[in-house]
Amino acid sequence: MSELTTIARPYAKAAFDFAVEKGNTEAWAEMLFFAAEVANNDSIAQLLHGDRAGAELTEIFVSICEGQLDENGLNLIKVMAENGRLSVLPLVNELFLAYVADYNQEIEANVVSSVELTKDQEAKISASLEKRLARKVKLNCSVDKSLIGGVVITAGDLVIDGSVRGKLDRLADSLQS
Questions:
Q1: In the Cβ-directed half-sphere of 126, how many Cα atoms lie within 13 Å?
Q2: Longest C-alpha distance within the chain, in Å?
Q3: How open is the CA angle 171-143-90, to the nearest 5 degrees?
Q4: Dist. CA 40–CA 79, nearest whole Å
Q5: Any bridge partners for residue 160, and if so which?
Q6: DSSP 104
Q7: CA 171 to CA 81: how far, in whole Å?
Q8: Which residues of 30-55 are buried (b: 16+ CB within 10 A; e: fewer)?
Q9: 77-132 residue pLDDT tens
Q10: Average pLDDT, stretch 145-150?
Q11: Are strands 106-113 and 151-155 parallel, antiparallel or unpaired?
Q12: 166 burial via Cβ count (<10 Å: 0-12, 13-18, 19+)
């Protein structure tokens, strides 16, 4: 996976820098999402991993993406095809979105709770995280009954385990040592 990230990162960074320079990160995000979905298609994925020539792959990919990508997006696809890198388009899209989120000072936080959170609870968690992380926070909330009570919050490297299950696990660990 890290090898693919190493391959995808320069393309994502170049697309991001270009999009910021032109002020159209949203349009680029849409184009890269579309191209990534095309690359994820089973039929196209087989072509990408086959022994087709770069020019032929470029032609196929460009014909599918025509109308969805602007001239600059098509140029990125052509360069990636020439270098045999179209298969990493989904990762390029993922890295591009991470660059945009970082640029916009945004972060996604996953909140897992034992019961459904109310809108007020979500607002309080969001406000606390925004204050702590100094970023805009987008919450992804889910329910896991095995937590017994409380919540587990993950945002990037930050993990806050305020669940009863987590506290019981930590208690068991300290009793064993």
A1: 15
A2: 64
A3: 110
A4: 19
A5: 153
A6: T
A7: 54
A8: ebbbbbbebbeeeebeebbeeeeeee
A9: 889 888 888 889 999 999 999 999 989 999 999 999 999 999 999 999 999 999 99
A10: 89
A11: antiparallel
A12: middle
Give one DSSP letter per residue of 25-94, joined into a string.
HHHHHHHHHHHHHHHHSHHHHHHHTTT--HHHHHHHHHHHHBTTB-HHHHHHHHHHHHTT-GGGHHHHHH
**What CA–CA distance (Å, rounded) separates 90 from 138?**
22
pLDDT in tens, 125-143: 999 999 999 999 999 999 9
156 DSSP assignment: T
- Whether the Cβ atoms of residue 154 and residue 126 lie closer than 8 Å to each other: no
Structure tokens at 99: 């660059």
Q: What is the pTM of this model?
A: 0.72
